[in-house]
Amino acid sequence: MDLHVTLHGRTDLSGQIYRQIRAAILDGRLPAGERLPSTRDLAAQLGVSRKTTLDVFERLLAESFLLSKPGHGTFVADGPQRMPQTQPAPQQAQPSPLWQAMPPAQALQPRSTHPHDFMGGVTDKTRFPFEPWRRCMNHALRLQARGRGAYHDPAGEQELRLGISRYLGFNRAVASQWQDVIVTQGAQQALDLLARVVLQPGDIVAMEEPGYPPARACFTAMGARVVSVPVDAHGMVVDALPAQARLVYVTPSHQFPLGMPLSLDRRIALLEWAQRTGAVIAEDDYDGEFRFEGRPLDALKSLDRAGLVAYVGTFSKTIFPELRVGYLVPPQSLYGALVKAKQLVDWHSASLTQAALARFMLDGDFARHLRRSHKLYEARRAMLIRHLTGPLAPWFTPIVAMAGIHMTALLKPGIDEAAVIASGDAVQIGLYGTQRFYAESPPQPALLFGYGEIDVAQIDEALTRLATALRQQVPVVT
Ligand SMILES: Cc1ncc(COP(=O)(O)O)c(C=O)c1O
């Protein structure tokens, strides 16, 4: 790597080089152990005499900034010369007050290192068909190599939008044309775009409580006031919606994180309410494709006659979150503004990934993968229910969700969440509470059991061990 040194004029060249290398070492741009170019190369690079660079190196060696290893080169010496951090510069760049106060969307949750882990929000990569995916990636690479360099459509690659639109029609009963779909970087960007085009600072956004913190953070970052709306056994309590809400964020298929679906009555009430108030509804259907029992409830989007629901989906739960592909099917009236916002934010999502995913969908690999995953998750969910309603029933009341890849279980009155998590920890089981999903109201002690990554035999073994540990360590309150 070239060492970046800028020289002005023709005087004091060695002083200029000396000061710049020294400053780079002091502020850490040149870390300890970094090898410097030879004096000969540096002289040639800067267009100065070899004597000049030799003088600089000698001085830095004498002051212990550099270290010479004969036969190997000259290196940045280890630390003592680094200056203690002094007062911050008076004119440091600062984020706006809003961003200074912004919490992270979601602290990257530290994962347990336990072999049995109920982390939510992750999928089973060992079961992902990487071979077909590789074929699709190769296909995408060939396409990429053929085309001329150009920015693509901000709304996304046509083939992928077609794949998504067909999939939504078939799987989620959401009717759309490919022209209605906008490809995004995950559901998170879909929410961000919606917030940009719908909200003004000070607007009210209604969110379920408990709810999905990254959505809350996204609306807060737009300057909105997020108002929590309680949920009960039927999902969001529509009667408690603030009349002035401009946007309502809701997870109707599988309330996040508790799991109950929004009942049909509530869906209709929500749509009627939105028609009266003109509010936009963001329907986050993040894991509704995995439905295991009960009559399927239509997506809000498919009941929406007035054009108020923006449907948000993601491949994070069906493929894996690192893919960063999601989508939006907005009301027609918002479509143009959303595409402009998408272009403004990042021009378009990566066309290579889009093309590979389109192939994956249109070749039938995605449908096959979903069918296999569905079977796996169904067995895992059944095992979880068997334990939570059987040997673990003295401690837990599961909220038996019909869909999704996690299940939340409330703790029986008087049982301490931290004590249960600690008991799991002691027998090498990673358990996770739900406290961090509450913004305002006192959290109801509960655990979220993700079964995206833990297989059925591991669930059986882990929960058998957990029951034994709890019997010894967490007395049941009677
Ligand atoms: C409620 C909810 N929405 C959306 C997502 C997925 O977001 P993304 O597509 O940005 O990965 C998740 C993932 O955990 C989620 O829990």
UniProtKB/TrEMBL annotation:
Gene Ontology molecular function, alphabetical: DNA binding; DNA-binding transcription factor activity; pyridoxal phosphate binding
PANTHER family in the record: HTH-TYPE TRANSCRIPTIONAL REGULATORY PROTEIN GABR
SUPFAM superfamilies for the chain: PLP-dependent transferases, Winged helix' DNA-binding domain
Domain HTH gntR-type residues, every copy: 11-79
Domain of life, source organism: Bacteria
Family assignment from sequence similarity: In the C-terminal section; belongs to the class-I pyridoxal-phosphate-dependent aminotransferase family.
Name of the protein this chain belongs to: Putative 8-amino-7-oxononanoate synthase
CDD domains from the UniProt entry: AAT_like, WHTH_GntR
Gene3D superfamilies, per the entry: Type I PLP-dependent aspartate aminotransferase-like (Major domain), Winged helix-like DNA-binding domain superfamily/Winged helix DNA-binding domain
PROSITE patterns for the chain: HTH_GNTR
Protein keywords: DNA-binding, Pyridoxal phosphate, Transcription, Transcription regulation
